[in-house]
């Protein structure tokens, strides 16, 4: 069964949202180990800087693998 582009975007978005929450939590724990002191606003901003890239990466990889799967099933 073929995955639609919409469902690829839903999957990529869910992946990025979960990754964003985990990244913020990780930054809050790990940054102080390296002497990096930032507030919550900075943590959220740093995380947001990577959201667009992560979303595009997830979507494009999903579409690539879907194209490979469809080509192999023909």
Structural account:
With 74 residues, the protein is mainly α. It has one domain. It contains two helices and no strands. Helix 1 (5-30) runs antiparallel to helix 2 (40-73).
Q: Which stretches are poorly predicted, pLDDT < 50 over at least 5 residues?
A: none
Give the overall average pLDDT: 87
Count of domains: 1
Structural class, judged by helices and strands? Answer: mainly alpha
| Terminal residue distance | 12 Å
* Rg (CA only): 16 Å
The proportion of strand residues reads: under 5%
Helix content: over 70%
Q: How would you spell out the order of helices and strands?
A: HH
Task: Count helical runs.
Answer: 2
Largest sheet: none
Cα shape: elongated
Question: Helices, strands, pairings?
Answer:
Layout: H1 5-30, H2 40-73
Helix pairs in contact: 1-2
Can you describe this structure in just a few lines?
This protein has 74 residues and is mostly helical. Helices cover 81% and strands 0% of the residues. It is built from two helices and no strands.
Could you name the key traits of this structure?
2 helices; single chain
